[in-house]
Design goal:
Length: 462
């Protein structure tokens, strides 16, 4: 179906309905034509700052009438090109829909608008002794996190966004607004349409409200920092910790390159060797000691060079600040270079193999890249970098393709948490086979004009 983009009569109709909430200012167009990957820049035709669900519904109605593509946008922190608009598209910014609508401490849940960030929600519920555990690191919004099924450092204990969303309101292209899921903690009633929209990256509908699970704040926490001679040994330790039922809150890996960048970026003095960070939580400090001792013993058995323990809240916050700043620290270390962040996930028992394969591939290609990840989930990232347009990018692309192929052969996935967007469409059929055709049929059913975030997730038809 041919789209026309924003111009002429379409732009006039949007201005008549939304007034100053519609912007064509250069600064707004520039800000909405890119994401954190920095790999593409395509300015939209206009940016609409929606304030209510009615704004979203009316915007979709006008888009349908004038055949205008619509790309949902909020914090802009995606990494796979989900936010890059086709020329002339409407960038639908939901960040002003940022109210915490309802908190029910006794039910361990909150209802929010899609522009609420997870730190904002946590500030709102902390006084009730609760928190929302999914923490992708950036100041991501809950609507965006739901759209990509984001996870982060705490997913090993609490699950991804998908496991922590109970209910949704979703605006469809045909004008309907659906309420999906329920406030109950479980349900066996009907098709699970809620999960259809979680991870759909705005290609099937626009999320306008979410009810999410909350969890009790842990009474006691500590973290182990375990240094290893190589990434493979750290991965083996991670699988041993998970196999011992230690139930860590977080289980993270950063290689020597990542530690070097974080040290320079934050002025730290961490040992610049592959490091496994294990956070434990429990009802009391005493209850954690046996689990701490077990984790330390397992790490030393796997070849740990050194094990240190952080118990004070300020030490724990500093530790996780270093982990969350790794991406930005590495970018700061190589100014002027382009970056590509991969996101692969394998069954846990395959983690040492794929990480060793990655390190061997980097060495063979002569590439300087950093490996880090949520290894308790089998989820890891490789952050490649090179000068724009240099010959390194051909080698990076070839190695990236081999990494995905090996990941899929091991029973893994081409994306554990970043989503597909523009960058991973070419891998989707290799992972899902003929199911891609069914995905396309679902897309056509809900968005027959192909106006909702077109060109994302699904590969082009053969």
């Amino acid at each position: 179906m041919t789209t026309t983009g924003l111009g002429g009569a379409a732009l006039g109709a949007f201005r008549a309905r939304f007034g100053e909430a519609l912007s064509t200012a250069d600064a707004a167009l520039d800000a909405h034509g890119r994401d954190e990957s920095g790999l593409e820049v395509v300015r939209p035709g206009a940016v609409l700052f929606a304030r209510t669900e009615a704004d979203v519904v009316d915007a979709l109605a006008l888009a349908r009438e004038f055949r205008v593509p619509v790309v949902p946008f909020a914090a802009g922190s995606s990494l796979e090109g989900q936010l890059i608009p086709p020329p002339g598209a409407l960038s639908l910014n939901l960040s002003s829909m940022a109210r915490v609508l309802d908190v029910r401490p006794g039910a361990f849940q909150a209802t929010v608008e899609p522009g609420v960030t997870y730190p904002q929600l946590n500030r709102a519920v902390r006084a009730q002794g609760l928190f929302f555990p999914v923490d992708p690191g950036a100041e991501a919004t809950l609507g965006g996190m739901a759209s990509t099924n984001a996870s982060g450092t705490a997913a090993v204990r609490y699950g991804t966004t998908r496991e922590n969303v109970l209910a949704l309101r979703v605006a469809l292209m045909d004008g309907r607004v659906l309420s999906l899921g329920s406030r109950a903690r479980k349900s066996s009633a009907g098709y699970d349409l809620r999960h259809l929209f979680l991870g759909a990256e705005g290609t099937l509908g626009v999320i306008t409200e979410l009810t999410v699970r909350l969890w009790p704040l842990p009474a006691a926490r500590l973290a182990l920092r375990c240094a290893f001679p190589d990434v493979g040994a750290a991965a083996r330790a991670a699988t041993m910790v998970m196999g011992a039922s230690a139930q860590p809150e977080r289980l993270e890996l950063m290689d020597a390159r990542g530690l070097r960048a974080v040290n320079r970026h934050l002025g730290l003095n961490e040992p610049e060797v592959p490091t496994l960070w294990i956070e434990l939580a429990g009802a009391s400090a005493g209850a954690l000691e046996d689990v701490r001792a077990l984790c330390e013993e397992l790490c030393r058995d796997a070849g740990a060079l050194d094990v240190r323990v952080a118990r004070q809240p300020e030490d724990l916050e500093a530790l996780w600040r270093a982990r969350h700043h790794a991406f930005y620290a590495l970018k700061a270390l190589y100014p002027g270079e382009a970056f590509l962040s991969t996101d692969l996930c394998v069954p846990l028992d395959a983690l040492p193999e794929i990480l060793t394969f990655t390190e061997d591939g980097l060495h063979a290609e002569g590439l300087d890249a950093s490996v880090l990840g949520h290894v308790g989930d089998g989820n890891f990232h490789v952050l490649f970098h090179a000068p724009p347009g240099s010959g390194d990018w051909a080698r990076i692309d070839a190695l990236y393709t081999r990494l995905v192929e090996r990941t899929l052969a091991l029973g893994g996935t081409c994306s554990g948490e970043h989503g597909v967007g523009l960058h991973k469409r070419r891998f989707l059929r290799a992972q899902h086979g003929d199911a891609v055709d069914l995905m396309r049929e679902v897309k056509t059913l809900l968005d027959p004009l192909n106006l909702l975030n077109p060109g994302k997730v699904l590969p082009d038809p053969a």
